[in-house]
Amino acid sequence: xxxxxxxxxxxxxxxxxxxxxxxxxxxxxxxxxxxxxxxxxxxxxxxxxxxxxxxxxxxxxxxxxxxxxxxxxxxxxxxxxxxxxxxxxxxxxxxxxxxxxxxxxxxxxxxxxxxxxxxxxxxxxxxxxxxxxxxxxxxxxxxxxxxxxxxxxxxxxxxxxxxxxxxxxxxxxxxxxxxxxxxxxxxxxxxxxxxxxxxxxxxxxxxxxxxxxxxxxxxxxxxxxxxxxxxxxxxxxxxxxxxxxxxxxxxxxxxxxxxxxxxxxxxxxxxxxxxxxxxxxxxxxxxxxxxxxxxxxxxxxxxxxxxx
Length: 308
What we know:
- This protein has about 300 residues and is of the alpha/beta class.
- It folds into 2 domains: about 5-75, CATH 3.100.10.20; about 90-300, Four Helix Bundle (Hemerythrin (Met), subunit A) (Up-down Bundle).
- It has 11 helices and 10 strands.
């Protein structure tokens, strides 16, 4: 994943010809072609964007991740359409998807998430059998909230009973950062596939423009969790783990068709969901496994980047 992080207060992003120019005080400007980017991160609030630069980023389908004074993600700027593919008719079909179909798809998403959590525990040498059982028990729509039960067990196994997902542990900050990068990738792929990111399956908050992204990123969260566990972030300068997590789009993901980089796997998942919307039936392409770094060499021959 090609990511540009703007970390300096007073930096500016402007359009220079056909390129983006990032200027930082007391440094030479850096130039980028927008089409070569996947994500631009403004890590501090005092980054100035020209309208032309934002327009070029939107035209190229690039998501901009905005952060607050604590360097934590607070929002995204997502293109309204990419390459003219956004179709209001598809958005209407998406909004009117039958509840039975929504519940069926949500079951597959949650089962996949719990199985990937179990896979992470197994790789870490921790007990995982209970999660396999919970995955089998998920019903359409997950009315008994097996997702929450699995999450409680999962986090306790990983980090102990005292760990809290909303605490001030440095690992929490790292997880939130990784999830924000993942959310941005999913949001961009949804828009590029002609889907409206605010119209979710399970997430339906009226003030959340990324409900669908929050739905479809769920099975990929354990990939971020595994990366954070490998990095073991500590208090202090977070630049090292932020840099590593910003590149998570390069991690290998196993789909039914083979092994792909995460960014390509997300694109294929979004495209498969668009096909479900259009046909009124079918399945979403979801990750079957997250191969370890020892399997990353398979990417050279197995990955096909780009549209289906």
